[in-house]
Specification:
4-stranded parallel sheet, globular, alpha/beta, 26 strands, 432 residues
Length: 432
């Protein structure tokens, strides 16, 4: 009996998840094709809602969707990929218990995504924490609660001020959302401590860019900036951290800010796995054809943040590293892999015009530009939450229930202590 054709997909993020789903749907049920998804966790992570996890709005289980449940026709191989042999057509990985495994493939889809971008700034690796996974969001949630509680327990005004000061670096989507959610969260915690009745909860947002959300329309940027400042966030554009210490941060503009919290949201870089293949890369992203295949390697496809996909709507450029592109590229990659195996007419090129973006600013505020129509305030909030519910592959009802409960009940603010600082180091390539 002939061995089944095997398609190995590396990475279960937006690109990898959609590639696995579209491929399984494109194949006839009796097709002799095995789909194997290699991912370090057994769940798909809906990254856009992590700031709400950190602010205790959404339960962390809501942003995680079981891969086995969502992809019944796909075999999950849980582990970290540590090697790819293009000549032997094998993928090597290590499972959660340290066991080594090797998978043969007939088609390979690289969707390994991205990792934290660490800049060479003294002290940042030791004292800052990124924001790329559930563990990091849970750590930040516990850490913020702990700082407020420790501030309430001390009689030292300088220490109290430092513990009640929170610095976020990076005014892109993630950093802006974290900074916007922060004041609402700390205000809710501080209400429970009479010792902090007159204590200022200070949030500072830093970025070398000239404005908040530089990727968006200037009207949306101004709307987000207004919300942030209205909540008391110190928005400092054109500034960043020169050095981080245990006691606080030295700013490039001069001066020192005492703090025990440094959230690093400056962006991401492609997973180093792409460069380890030896294939041509562009700024760490694997160079691919418009149909997402690798030139000279028709059995290899790449999509999402790991791929430098030609942007056919902007000649000479590559698509941005966004969830919107990753999900759509993953869907096309799955269909093109099926076509390459004879289950489709032809390989199609990737071409997508941005449909707009949404940024949740906490409370009743958001900024969005669906179909490039700029919106802000409560209407944008409705659009933003509607978009997330449609984009999530599961847990929609539970997520909506969390939002409803947050609107009428006070937030839970206890430290779970599940994630320690050393479990989420910034310099790691794959946060726990």
């Amino acid at each position: 009996m002939a061995e089944a054709t095997r398609v190995v997909i590396v990475g279960g993020g937006f690109a990898g998840f959609q590639a696995a789903r579209s491929l399984s749907r494109a194949l006839p049920r009796d097709a002799p094709v095995e789909i194997v998804l290699v991912n370090r966790t057994d769940y798909f992570l809906y990254l856009p809602l992590l700031p709400e996890v950190a602010a205790a709005v959404v339960d962390p289980r809501r942003v995680t969707v079981s891969l086995s449940a969502a992809l019944p026709r796909v075999r999950l191989a849980q582990g970290d990929v540590n090697g790819i042999s293009l000549d032997d057509r094998t993928v090597s990985y290590t499972d959660p218990e340290g066991g080594s495994h090797e998978l043969r493939y007939d088609r390979l889809v690289l969707a390994s995504g991205s990792v934290n971008k660490l800049l060479p700034i003294p002290g940042v690796a030791e004292h800052a924490h990124g924001f790329r996974g559930v563990a990091e969001a849970l750590y930040l949630r516990d850490h913020v609660i702990r700082q407020v509680e420790l501030a309430a327990a001390t009689d030292n005004p300088e220490e109290r001020d430092a513990r009640c000061t929170f610095v976020v670096v990076g005014a892109g989507y993630t950093g802006t959302e974290v900074a916007a959610q922060g004041p609402l969260f700390t205000k809710a915690i501080a209400k429970r401590h009479r010792q902090l009745r007159d204590q200022r909860m200070r949030w500072i947002l830093l970025d070398v860019a000239p404005k908040v959300l530089p990727e968006l329309d200037s009207r949306l940027s101004r709307a987000a900036d207004k919300v942030l400042r209205g909540r008391g966030v110190e928005v400092r554009m054109g500034d960043s951290v020169r050095e981080a210490t245990k006691e606080g941060v030295h700013l490039k503009s001069g001066g020192f800010v005492g703090t025990r919290t440094l959230a690093w949201c400056v962006g991401v870089r492609p997973d180093p796995l792409t460069e380890s293949t030896g294939l041509e890369t562009k700024k760490g992203r694997l160079v691919v054809e418009p149909n997402l295949s690798v030139a000279g390697r028709p059995e290899v496809f790449c999509c999402g943040d790991a791929a430098a996909v030609p942007d056919l709507t902007r000649p000479g450029e590559v698509t941005a590293m966004t969830a919107q592109h990753a999900a759509r590229q993953g869907t096309l990659a799955g269909k093109n892999v099926a076509a390459s195996l004879g289950y489709g007419d032809r390989l199609r090129d990737y071409k997508h015009h941005d449909l707009g973006f949404v940024v949740d600013l906490g409370g009743t505020q958001a900024a969005a530009n669906p179909l490039h129509i700029p919106l802000s305030g409560f209407i944008a909030k409705i659009v933003t939450r509607g978009y997330h519910l449609m984009a999530m592959p599961g847990n929609r009802i539970r997520t909506a229930a969390d939002w409803a409960l947050d609107a009428v009940l006070s937030r839970q603010s206890v430290q779970l202590g599940l994630v320690r600082s050393n479990a989420v180091p910034l310099e790691t390539t794959k946060p726990s």
